[in-house]
């Protein structure tokens, strides 16, 4: 279920921390899935320097990473995303994805002195693993550091190369708290009975017809609605298309928050009064 997003500039020790966390969680009896940005780049047929010179290639790789993360989020495993993850917008997208999957998430920021990271990069013997100087500098400049005040970066664990990673605190942040509730707008509507949907449609339609009938007399101020005399509404300032739009909105809202059938009419009038104020 949990997602651990590892972020940092090039050569900051992200993969080392990823392997450390993998061993720790496996020792806790958890299934661990590692999704590596470097491996996705290779599978896409690119190299780590060329993709950062081409925004389309970079977007393609980010899309692959996001797809892999969401595909592997299940209630029984831990997903580790090992990559630069330097764009806060991308981290936010992953947060929304894990939230909709009712998963907990945390961010591990592998921090390092920029000059030290540059030296590590230059000392790499394998050319395929080394960033070109201009690419390295550009990535450092473009890096948007995680901020624990942002909900999509929180909880945030900052660690330098010579520091011990607080793995127990990471474990607690993922397994000792409930995941954030999904946004109301992204939840599926609760199942409603056929009778309720029929009543909802018929009652609101009947009120609409009554309002249209009242409007023909050009009333001023609030008037009673025929058939619902105890309910009043100012219909002088609303057009028929506007009423139809409000009815559709109310029906959608009622499907998400199913009211008692006896409350459909008064709640609809109240909704119209509030919307027309």
From TrEMBL:
Coiled coil: none
Name of the protein described by the UniProt record: Protein KTI12 homolog
Species assigned in the record: Henosepilachna vigintioctopunctata
GO molecular function, one term: ATP binding
GO biological process: regulation of transcription by RNA polymerase II; tRNA modification
Keywords of this entry: ATP-binding, Nucleotide-binding
InterPro entries, alphabetized: KTI12/PSTK, P-loop_NTPase
Protein family: Belongs to the KTI12 family.
């Amino acid at each position: 279920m949990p997602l651990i997003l590892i972020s940092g500039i090039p050569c900051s020790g992200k993969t080392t921390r990823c392997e450390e966390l993998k061993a720790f969680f496996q020792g806790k009896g958890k299934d661990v899935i590692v999704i590596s940005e470097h491996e996705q780049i290779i599978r896409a047929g690119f190299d780590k320097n060329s993709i950062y010179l081409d925004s389309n290639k970079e977007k393609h790789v980010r899309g692959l990473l996001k797809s892999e993360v969401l595909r592997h989020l299940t209630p029984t495993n831990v997903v580790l995303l090992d990559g630069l993850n330097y764009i806060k917008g991308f981290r936010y997208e992953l947060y929304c994805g894990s939230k909709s999957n009712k998963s907990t998430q945390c961010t591990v920021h592998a921090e390092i002195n920029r000059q030290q990271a540059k030296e590590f990069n230059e000392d790499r013997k394998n050319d395929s693993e080394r960033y070109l100087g201009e690419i390295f500098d550009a990535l450092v400049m473009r890096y948007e550091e995680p901020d624990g005040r942002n909900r999509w970066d929180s909880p945030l664990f900052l660690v330098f190369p010579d520091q011990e990673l607080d793995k127990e605190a990471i474990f607690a942040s993922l397994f000792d708290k409930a995941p954030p509730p999904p946004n109301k707008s992204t939840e599926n509507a609760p199942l409603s009975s056929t009778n309720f949907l029929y009543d909802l449609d018929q009652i609101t339609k009947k009120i609409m017809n009554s309002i249209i009938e009242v409007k023909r007399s050009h009333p001023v101020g609030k008037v009673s609605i025929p058939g619902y005399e105890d309910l009043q509404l100012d219909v002088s300032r609303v057009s028929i298309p506007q009423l139809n739009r409000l009815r559709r909105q109310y029906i959608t809202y009622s499907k998400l928050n199913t009211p008692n059938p006896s409350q459909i009419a008064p709640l609809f009038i109240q909704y119209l009064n509030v919307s027309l104020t």
